[in-house]
Amino acid sequence: MKRRLLAMSTALAATMLSSTAAYAAECTNDVWKRVMERGKVVVGVKADYKPWGYRDTDGSIIGMEIDFAQAAADAMGVELETVAVQSSNRMQFLEQGKIDMMIATMSDRADRREIVGIVQPNYYTSGTNIMAPKALGFSEWEDLRGKPVCGKQGAFYNQVVTERYGVEVVAFTGNAEAKQALRDKKCVAWVYDDSSIGSDLSSGEFEDFEMPLASEDDNPWGMAVPLAERDCVFGNFMSGLTFNMHQSGKLIELEEKWGIQATKYLADKKDQYGDWLAE
Amino acid sequence: MLELFTEFFRQLAEDHPRWNFIFFYEPRQWERIVKGFKYTLWLSVACVIFSVIIGVVGAWLQNSPSKFLRRCVQGYIQFFRNTPPFVQLLFFYFALGQFTPAVTGPDGWTEIPIISNVGWAIISLSFFAGAFNVEIFRSGIEAVPESTQEAASSLGFSRFQTYTEVVMPLAFRVSLPALNNNLVNLVKTTTQAIGIAVPELLYQCVTIWNDFPSAMYPTMLLLFVTFIALVGVLVFGMHRWERAMKIPGYGH
Question: For the whole model, what pTM was predicted?
Fold first, then answer.
């Protein structure tokens, strides 16, 4: 019995290993073709990250990234369907084909590029900061050493702040739970993207809180298509669209529309990609 | 030997980028797994013990002469059996957690509640599984013939004595297979404690595969293997117990 089990598990492991062999070398454009045939593109977005992606009072998902997804769908001439994803499952959703594309506040990291096809140029950026009660008066990251700080499962900087400053990250599965734990005084701060904390603070729901530290690890965000199609039609199309949205200032317009504090990053990109014939 | 082992997995990760068994060669990740396993073990053992106690006491109260007590037990069962355990966890930790006394931390702001998230996980999961255990023990108790109980009381046993000395020992034997099932489920349900950030095995595994996307499949595999082993030990123990308590001619 034992031996048979062992043989079975070895066989299982072997088949799983072989199935992950080499990537497709040439473009088959399967996902792109499927989107065209179906007349609908399924985009994974955040539903708990105001105002990039969140639920409206009627339950539909809206936000800056959804507008971006809509722009992509319009340019492709198909309908848009949004699927809410979590930080901890967004790459897997894309890998398994549950979504065709992902625009979900994801930081562009080297190890993530090996899993999903992150397209260039990046469309936004954010750094790491904390939301902490004014009463505690934190002024530098070192103040957090050895203290419990609420976080979110799936954020890459949980590991960074743990190793760099000895912060004890208590990671929840969702933003709402983590922020509730902060309000309940279960931790001294909430470590997250500075952009998201900024919009939370300006919403007026966090009167007694502040974002006291200097942001660290400024990291551009990347949207992603399936890895096999990054250098094919889909990836090139999204790269082009992102470029155009930088150049035309559409991204800055979206930033204003959703009440996001203006970032230097978008302004810089607009300059960098500026049309040399424009007045 | 150990060197060879770590070297093998380091090489495997290089050759197959999706099969990065990082916890086998990076001590920090291994520590996470060990820490997570300890929490899972602690949750499982504590919840199994408390839920069985709740089951035994609940089943006794179910036959209590007091109508009020019987109603209370019934209400408890209906509530805990008919609502999702994950929602119970969140409710206990966030809603009820507000009303428990808390000690103010050294910084003068944080409030360290008397019951931690681990405590709430144990309480809520024990009550969840306990509700099923009450019904499981009731089925055992109802299998004990009325005449046996009457015989016991005619020998001068009190109600409590009849329950502990006669009914329960027999009922327990009848209930064991069903109890076994429920406890297996309970051990697996401990993973839901991730919802209130209890650093048990699933929490640590999710953290690892978020930090190292290449380690996702191996970490999932590890989860499966660990739970198969953990539940295996429980089932083995329960079967041994079942056999040890067997009365020739009873229940077969």
Answer: 0.77
Residue B83's identity, in one-letter code, is T
Could you tell me if A87 lies within 8 Å of chain B, comparing CB atoms?
yes
Residues of A in contact with B197 (CB under 8 A): 150, 170-172, 177, 181
CATH of domain A28-123+222-262: 3.40.190.10
ipTM tops 0.85: no
Say whether A133 and B109 touch across the interface (CB within 8 A).
yes
Ordered domains of chain B (ranges, CATH) = 45-94+114-201 (1.10.3720.10)
* Residue in this structure with the two tokens 């053992």, named with its chain if needed: B45
Distances (CA, A) of A5 to A8, B12, B227: 5, 22, 16
Question: Smallest CA–CA separation between A31 and chain B, in Å?
Answer: 22
Please state the length of chain B.
252
Which pLDDT tens digit goes with each residue over B71-121? Answer: 999 999 999 999 999 999 999 998 888 888 888 877 777 887 888 889 999
Provide the residue ranges of all domains of chain A, joining segments of one domain with +.
28-123+222-262, 126-219
- The residue behind tokens 């036959």 is B63
CA torsion sign, A191 to A196 to A198 to A204?
A: negative
Residues of B in contact with A111 (CB under 8 A): 212-214
**pLDDT digits 0-9 by tens, A27-71:** 888 888 898 999 999 999 988 888 888 888 888 888 888 998 999
